[in-house]
């Protein structure tokens, strides 16, 4: 019996690498976003290579889980979709492998190198950007009165726009908006926010609307609150608002002013076996080329991260509407924008978050 | 005289060995067999429960990362006094460069930066940015380093930076526990956090108070239900029992979200109240995203844990006791209060312990319906585990929570007596 078991264990061990080669686990956010990736990347890749792709909707806890897997010495994920800030932390913690854009990523069709094609969006050595999304406001067209808001500061103007608003239950973005509407010049926002006085100033501004705010922690909250009429305006990811407006036909419109750009993309966990790493890199090479990134925009209103993909963005695959005007990067929408300041928040998030939470609990 | 009648010799078994010894051997075999039977459970509990909890407790004091990443610097810093008002000397800087070159090679310097950033804002980028420059230095030939490092980043020329490193270089630290009670470990010893960052003690208090409110509401609502269940004929009681258990078949998230639909301002209850005319349309009640919402939703979710132990205890109370009391002239109330209620107390005790302990560790429901005033300490623990990655602080908070539960359990044992708790 014992020998049989040992024999079995040995065979499993021998067979296992072959099994890994046939399938890979890709971690993402679930919902409409994972669907867009499945249509644009996973299905074509499986067709081309015969690799089975297993989806795991764990991106929200990816950093913590990867750290735990790494400590346990058993990383079961092959490719992980994370926001840029998380990618930077994973890179800092040594949990993601470094990527060389020139050898590991596909060049644009016209020969531009991947490094130039992604440009400034390569914010970390470990990060392969996929989309540009934005955190922005949507408002109920039927509940804001006769003059629709066009300015971010409408959020802080409870006289002109009485009613509840929803904001994310974290300092990032909210502090910037508060300072902007408290008269701080856009270029000075982070200098001011780096000082204790600036942090107090932002919290004081937020304090003026504190009683009118419902705080959200999941991206789906604001669309639901808007649809229910619980709030008259609220912040969330632009793709969520797109589906409320265009797919569910709710009386909601976008307030693109002072939208905050952020990036989402892939990392490959550190410590994969050579074979799995090779496959993960092969997938990344395929899934982040110019055409594939443009394909994803057929399914969801997030802008492709490559400059060369933008002209290829076409119509929504099911609704048949032109996608370009719904992209956060469209010139009409991007008149006044912020880019998530990764460096600043990597330093200040622990400190400001403690203050923000203490303020919330007051 | 035979051996057996000898008064001072040991009693012998049939085979001549002393009886005591042979009995012990027989018992030992039995004990081993019993142990073998419970071994799977014992190993399971040990592996999946005791060891993880033990390692969690240890994380709250463990802090070897600093001295492992920059060992030479930590050793050199022992000779430097932060109070002296002077920067460390060249040997510290040289040791630091040697340490960093090794750490950068192993990509460990940024981890150290994240660790120290919990204590002092800016450490994360300091280590990340300096790493790119220090990588090019050769510790053997490129010295002296003091000026070079200060050129790379002026924070290396600040006493505070080095004081932070020195303060947090001990292998076993009380820093996380101090943070967990709104204090901090500083070069001058333990100090209070600035007022605008104090939140954790408040959350501990809130967690305890709200858990008590939830427990009491469960008792108030659950007692009559358990009483009816225990006193109905079996057939009807079983049907009602299904209603009590029904929520277990529904996902926790669904039940919590359902409360959102019920309680929000455009929700079912407010709509009905406005329709009836009890509440004006512009003065709808705020019943969610606050403490009220948390108490309602959690009472609903935890109610079965109160009803079940109460029910099983009440089932064992003989109806004849009540009749006897009444036949001796007690009113309905006296019979209930003096006879029935004391007999049902073990059920209340068991239910209360279950509900209270479950509710102080809850975080999904408060997160969804609690808004800002209805969240618990467990929401902060979840934040530090999954978002800020400050696992040491999360472990310290968890350890304190565990200690609070044990203290309350001990107090309960002293006041009510743990023998008085019955699950059936």
Automatic annotation (TrEMBL), chain A:
The keyword Ribosomal protein does not apply. Pfam families: SBP_bac_8. Coiled coil: none annotated. Transmembrane segments: none annotated. Residues 1-21 form the signal peptide. The keyword Signal applies. It comes from the Bacteria. Keywords: Signal. This is Putative spermidine/putrescine transport system substrate-binding protein.
UniProtKB/TrEMBL annotation, chain B:
Keywords: Cell membrane, Membrane, Transmembrane, Transmembrane helix, Transport. The keyword Transmembrane applies. Residues 204-412 form the ABC transmembrane type-1 domain. InterPro entries: MetI-like (IPR000515), MetI-like_sf (IPR035906). GO terms for cellular component: plasma membrane. It comes from the Bacteria. The chain crosses the membrane at residues 34-58, 207-230, 236-254, 292-314, 335-364, 391-412. CDD domains: TM_PBP2. Belongs to the binding-protein-dependent transport system permease family. CysTW subfamily. PANTHER family: ABC TRANSPORTER PERMEASE PROTEIN, INNER MEMBRANE ABC TRANSPORTER PERMEASE PROTEIN YDCU-RELATED-RELATED. This is Putative spermidine/putrescine transport system permease protein.
